[in-house]
Amino acid sequence: MTTPEVPPSQTPPPTPPEQVSASSPYGWYPPPTQAPAPPPYGWYPPMNTYAILSLVFAIAVFPPLGIYFGNKAKRQIAERGERGIELANAGVICGWIFSAFQGLVLIIWCGFGAAIVVGGIANGGQ
């Protein structure tokens, strides 16, 4: 049997795709391709330890150390590209506020102490 001649203006009919295998569950079509994996989670630079210490010291321990550690953390963060600039800023701000509060309390305390001493001397040491 010969194949019929196709005029040059017409294209020949498409040939059916070959079957992948007789046991293929997909029949005439190849299996679907797998979707690409999602990108991994981003890597975060480490948190600056001095930034954490600045906030802790400014609020709970000794506010002038919070100012010192906060300024040191800002320099290190700029050099190393670490995280924690917000903590360092908060440590410096809280350090100044609590240092001023501590200074005011110290002045008032010294004033009361001086009043007690002066009052005791004025009353004849009684």
From TrEMBL:
The chain crosses the membrane at residues 50-69, 90-122. The keyword Transmembrane applies. Residues 50-102 form the DUF4190 domain. Residues 1-17 have a biased composition (Pro residues). Pfam families: DUF4190 (PF13828). Keywords: Membrane, Transmembrane, Transmembrane helix. Residues 1-31 are annotated as: Disordered. This is DUF4190 domain-containing protein. It comes from Planosporangium thailandense.
